[in-house]
Design goal:
The structure holds 3 protein chains of 3 kinds. Chain A is mostly helical. Helices cover 82% and strands 0% of the residues of chain A. The chains are: A mainly alpha, B mainly alpha, C mainly alpha. Chain A: This is Heme exporter protein D.
Amino acid sequence: MAFDSLADFIAMGGHARYVWAAWGVTLLMLLALTLFAWFEQRLALRVLRRHLRRTPTLAERQVPKASVTLAQAPTTQATLQTSAQASIQDGSQDSTHNRSAP
Amino acid sequence: MWAFIQKLRSPKWFYAIGGKCQPWFWAAALGLIALGSVWGLAFAPADYQQGNSFRIIYVHVPTAFLAQSIFVSMAACGLAFMVWKIKLADMAASVMAPIGALMTFVALYSGAVWGVPTWGTWWIWDARLTSMLILLFLYIGVIALRRAFASLEGGARAASVLAMVGVINIPIIKYSVDWWYTLHQPASFTITGRAAMPMAMWAPLLVMVVGFYCFFIALTLTRTRSEILRREGGKRWVRELVEEGADGL
Amino acid sequence: MNRPNEPQRGADAAVVAMLKRDLMLLLRQRGDVINPLVFFALVITLFPIGISPEPALLAVVAPGLLWVAALLAALLSLDGLFRSDFDDGSLEQWLLAPQPTALLCMAKVLAHWLLTGLPLALIAPLLGVMLALPAGSYWALCVSLALGTASLSLIGAIGAALTVGLARGGVLLSLLVLPLYIPVLIFGSGAVSAAVVGSGLAAHLAILGALLAVALMLAPWAIAAALRISING
């Protein structure tokens, strides 16, 4: 030990203000960075989970589209076009709904 | 070897490997910094001239070394991004910049605090401290430039160019003590060279420096993995990873 | 023989053409040439008013003051280096040109230096008299500023190219470029101080020259890369 007692150690031979200020700020910075990184990761995962919950996968999205066109079984060109437009609108509504979720 | 480099491009691979390596670096950082701190604060001998304020070297030198090294690695990542289009390199560079800026600030602060009992002044305009201040401004510039661009790609490329241009400043920092005779002490610690300090003094310093580097690697791994989640959130492998809920922190 | 769609002459003709164009444009807008000089003079005027008119005090700080004021004046003129070309779309055309973009950038920066840096270097001795700059250093002031502003134009052009596409790029430009200017400032004002003292001038000028050489080698590529980034945005 370079010091005789704990009191000596804290006093740092009269240089306590400087040594503890410098060390304190440095260790504080290390701690702050560590906590920040940890919270950042948790936040990223939380945001991602929320986003994924509200976003259906491509497979989930395609099923209703297929059932709509099969059920309606359009006979004329006009109904073909309107059903196609309806399915496109369904799809775009789905995606706008997803985008509004944070 | 080439397959390894090819794997480096894959965020998915990096996320997995990084997750495995991460705990080791955090543990090493904690252990080494704790060991170095106790050793340097309580057991290393005080300096003959400076007394106990000399102990500030154990935090000032590691942060100063890191401040410069982080800028160099940021520039290297920028190079990898611009030349080989490795997006992962840019992700790493973007998380390194604030860490480096903070390290520079703390190095300046501890250097200034050290100056009061040693030279009787809070700030001295010598080459070393001045270069470190310039480095801080360079960091702020890189961070500001990246954020000023509306597109992620534009900001990434601009920050890479600026980092590479700025890294030319680093040799000037390193050799500035040769060019200018100043109040600041000549470099008494080099990794390969002989130390001007006795071993009882520079051994804990070495431990602290290695500990700080481990901390930086651990922090970068963690933050880059978070950045991967943010940027690659739409990919299927991320979805699978999050949904199974078993990803290591 | 040249095929019909290929440029008639080589890259040197393009450089000369770019140089002539920029000089002509700058000379037409006299304001762009005069403003930095007036700014230089104004800033120099501010210092005795703000500090003290005492010649002894001014003589001590004159080398640094002259250099800082010239540096800031040069910085001020940089924002417009690429902006008008960016706004009217001609910048994109040059990036598409068959000539190497780095060469064209050098031509632009040369034009900028000829009409900004060089005039600053030439009127500096006049302002040095106002700041009681000691005799024997006026020539050093001119030469160091001429060499130095060339480096400043090159380095500053990198910053100008990076920020030309941004909304409030002017402020960011200063933030980016000033740290990179500091080595040139150190040796430039050091040269003038060395001339005042009477020794070390050659060394300082040599380092200024070396900095210019490095800037000449590396800056054009950085400027070209930065312009491409700004265009693609």
